[in-house]
Design a protein that fits this description.
Layout (H helix, E strand, L loop, with lengths): L3 H11 L15 H32 L6 H36 L15 H6 L7 H14 L2
Helix pairs in contact: 2-3
């Protein structure tokens, strides 16, 4: 069981209060879905703000350096930033797909075996589509196949 300090630090890092189930509450109730919708929307806003910061940074820092080494360094920095933004763009797409699943009441169930994914796993990885058992098996298979 995590300590109070550990729980508070994780709340600060993730920016949300862990979901507190009520006795007898149905899995993926309206309140639960609203909790995950809020987490996903906050995450999406943070990612989009980061994209805006990158665009402004690249516009502000873009310079035509006469020295080829300086120019190469700047191009490499921009390349790394663009790769990170591309990963975030894909993540935003996945967040949108997850929000759609919530809207359709299909969120929180394993795509492979159909069991509940679990609230804590979804709080750790809100876009998860597999329960921990199926994800573990998939990772083992992936490792064995070397792909």
């Amino acid at each position: 069981m995590p300590t109070k300090a550990k729980q508070q630090s994780s709340q600060l890092i993730r920016g949300f209060e862990p979901y507190q189930e009520t006795k007898g509450e149905e899995y993926m109730s309206e309140r639960m879905r609203a909790h995950f919708t809020s987490i996903l929307n906050k995450w999406k806003v943070e990612l989009m703000e980061e994209v805006d910061r990158t665009v402004h940074h690249m516009q502000d820092e873009a310079a035509n350096f006469p020295d080829p080494a300086d120019r190469a360094s700047q191009e490499e920095e921009f390349s790394l930033e663009l790769r990170a933004r591309d990963r975030e763009r894909k993540l935003i797409k996945k967040i949108d797909e997850t929000l759609q699943l919530i809207e359709e009441n299909d969120y929180g169930w394993c795509d492979s075996c159909g069991v509940e994914i679990g609230i804590r796993r979804l709080e750790a990885r809100p876009t998860a589509t597999l329960c921990i058992d199926c994800k573990t098996l998939a990772e083992i298979k992936e490792k064995q196949l070397g792909s």
